[in-house]
């Protein structure tokens, strides 16, 4: 039995994508604050606590839902967009930075997908957006971005955003991949998530890739991004405020002068 609203959609664009959701009369989509792009007449906006799912009825349930969202770094509030007209209407949400929007049919993934805490963009009303703690001690101490994650539960459509290019992998039972924690977008609930020490003195001191890998072991599906927003932000800051690396060129200083960077 399907309980979430059944929405239709189109993903538009290449590197700066947006998702256009078509709502039947009285259908509702929920979205993170700040993701709204445009909407048709007769779409009504309403700010709500938490995700507005059926599981969060009553004041206490709504407060619990909103409190969990604080742990994942999100706002206490979400926005619900309801078609109050008599014909199909559209509302569009935009990605926050270059990358891809991924549509996830939770019904096809046994009702649950776990994703990075800043990946969720929007969903059909009824999808529950909660938190997923990684319970192992090593993961909690060293997991970094992967320790507190979001879980999307329900039987409807949810949309998440990833940076750069997205790779989908279907892991077989026992198959394991090692991955930078920031490059994980999402994985299904049957995938086992853990942390592994890189190992080796040279790797630890000079590797520049951190001390730990995330490991994902099948069976299940995983989504991987090539450019986490944390990596993009650190490179931009390093370029703007640090000394530039001139890779392999003795004319690096002259190059700085020629392009206006003469400090």
Summarize the structure.
The chain is an alpha+beta fold and 263 residues long. Helices cover 17% and strands 41% of the residues.
Could you walk me through the main structural features you see in this protein, from its secondary elements to its overall organization?
The chain has a single domain, classed as Mitochondrial biogenesis AIM24 (Double-stranded beta-helix, 4-Layer Sandwich), CATH 3.60.160. The protein contains five helices and 19 strands. The chain has a six-stranded antiparallel beta sheet with strand order 5-6-3-10-13-8. The protein has a six-stranded antiparallel beta sheet with strand order 11-12-9-16-19-14, covered by helices on one side. A four-stranded antiparallel beta sheet has the order 1-2-7-4, with no helix packed on it.
Rg over alpha carbons: 21 Å
Question: Based on helices, strands and strand pairing, what is the structural class?
Answer: alpha+beta
Number of domains: 1
Helix content, binned percent: 10-25%
Strand and helix order? EEEEEHEEEEEEHEEEEEEHEEHH
Mean pLDDT, nearest integer?
A: 79
Percent strand equals: 35-45%
Distance between the termini: 65 Å
Strands in their spatial order, largest beta sheet: 5-6-3-10-13-8
Would you count the extended β strands for me? 19
CATH architecture field? 4-Layer Sandwich
Q: Any low-confidence stretches, pLDDT <50, length ≥5? A: 137-146, 203-209, 246-255
Q: What's the shape?
A: globular
Major sheet details: 6 strands, antiparallel
CATH homologous group name: Mitochondrial biogenesis AIM24
CATH class: Alpha Beta
């Amino acid at each position: 039995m399907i309980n979430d609203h059944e929405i239709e959609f189109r993903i538009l664009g290449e590197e700066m994508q947006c998702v256009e959701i078509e709502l039947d009369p009285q259908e509702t989509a929920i979205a993170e604050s700040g993701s709204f792009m445009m909407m048709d007449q007769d779409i009504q906006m309403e700010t709500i606590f938490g995700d507005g799912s059926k599981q969060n009825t009553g004041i206490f349930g709504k407060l619990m839902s909103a409190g969990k969202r604080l742990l994942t770094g999100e706002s206490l509030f979400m926005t619900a967009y309801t078609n109050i007209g008599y014909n199909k209407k559209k509302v569009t949400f935009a990605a926050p930075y270059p990358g891809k929007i991924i549509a996830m049919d939770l019904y096809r993934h046994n009702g649950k997908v776990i994703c990075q805490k800043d990946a969720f963009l929007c969903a059909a009303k009824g999808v529950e957006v909660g938190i997923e703690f990684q319970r192992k001690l090593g993961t909690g101490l060293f997991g970094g971005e992967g320790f507190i994650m979001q879980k999307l539960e329900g039987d409807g459509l949810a949309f998440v955003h990833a940076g750069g290019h997205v790779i989908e992998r279907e892991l077989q039972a026992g198959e394991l991949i090692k991955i930078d924690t920031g490059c994980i977008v999402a994985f299904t609930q049957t995938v086992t998530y853990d942390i592994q020490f890189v190992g080796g003195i040279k790797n630890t001191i000079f590797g520049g890739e951190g001390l730990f890998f995330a490991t994902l072991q099948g069976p299940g599906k995983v989504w991987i991004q090539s450019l986490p927003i944390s990596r993009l932000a650190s490179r931009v800051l390093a370029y703007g405020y640090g000394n530039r690396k001139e890779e392999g060129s003795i004319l690096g200083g002259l190059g700085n002068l020629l392009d206006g960077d003469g400090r």
